[in-house]
Amino acid sequence: MAKKKRRNSSIVIKNPTEIESMRKAGFIASDVLQGLIAALEIGKSTKDMDDLAAELMKEHGVKSAFLNYHGFPGQICISVNEEVIHGIGSPTRILAAGDVVKMDVGVVANGWIGDNASTHIMGDVQAADLETRQLLHATEQSLFDCIPYAKDGVNLADLCGSIEDSVRNREQNFGIVREFVGHGVGSILHEEPQIPNYRPLGKQPTLRSGMILAIEPMMTAGKPKVKILDDNWTVVTTDRKHSAHFEHTVLVTDNGGELLTDRPRAALPKQMLL
Ligand code: MG
Question: Does the reported pTM lie above 0.90?
Fold first, then answer.
């Protein structure tokens, strides 16, 4: 889930015990998202996916970090096509071939939060228009391109700038959403700092090992402008063009970012299971 922009204050540095807890939370958030991706199917409703998220979280003994957050009514955010983020699962929104589906999963595991998201094209991906496929690729690549900057001593502005550069260094003129940003994450869903997907103006903090960031590029096929629908949650592109969203929870280390939400099930040591 993304944060609406406001001013910075102080950034929490996690101790080794807290980092281990965040690794567990990140693993589970990742496992739930992977389970949902595997279950995506034409003909299912977005509410079906939300219901499945509830089941998967229950299996892990965790709760949604989003449900009831400022009144959010879903287990996950599920946003289709022009919907960028914060979409709410609906029994009448049936997934069809060519739909661009964004799922954002946040879980609370023993009081610690893992947050991740990804975007998928329903049905035959090769049948989707080239622009949409390139948009998904560019958005995901911008997330990976900034991971080396999640490093002790790097200024946050350089991490944010690397996301912007990654998208701008392309032939296509994709939009970078400005009204919503990534965020620090820990025992609270939205901690400091804010992490815009473009080089921010003004003095920015220096990243330190032990900070944990939910980095989440949100890009559009057209103009970057977005608005919130009457449900007070769903963020859509004002020009109704497609959008993409990818997110990882990332630990800042001395050697660059460690992805906490990119853990295949088999890779998890037994002692890390809750
Ligand atoms: Mg988030």
Answer: yes
Q: Give ion ligand 1 contacts, CB < 5 A.
A: 1, 115, 214
Distance 235 CA to ligand 1 centre (A): 14
pLDDT per residue as tens digits for the range 146-197: 999 999 999 999 999 999 999 999 999 999 999 999 999 999 999 999 999 9
3-261 carries CATH number 3.90.230.10: yes
Write out the chain in H/E/C secondary structure: CCEECCCCCCCCCCCHHHHHHHHHHHHHHHHHHHHHHHHCCCCCEHHHHHHHHHHHHHHHCCEECCCCHHHCCCCCEEEECCEEECCCCCCCCECCCCCEEEEEEEEEECCEEEEEEEEEECCCHHHCCHHHHHHHHHHHHHHHHHHHHCECCCEHHHHHHHHHHHHHCCCCCCEECCCEEEEECCCCCCEEEEECCCCCCCCCCECCCCCEEEECCEEECCCCCEEECCCCCCEEECCCCCEEECEEEEECECCCCEECCCCCHHHCCHHHCC
Report CA(262)–ligand 1 centroid distance (Å).
Answer: 15
Mean of the pLDDT values across residues 29-50?
96
Q: 48 or 8, which is more confident?
A: 48
The pLDDT-based confidence of 217 (bands split at 50, 70, 90) is very high
Distance between Cα 3 and ligand 1 center (Å) = 7
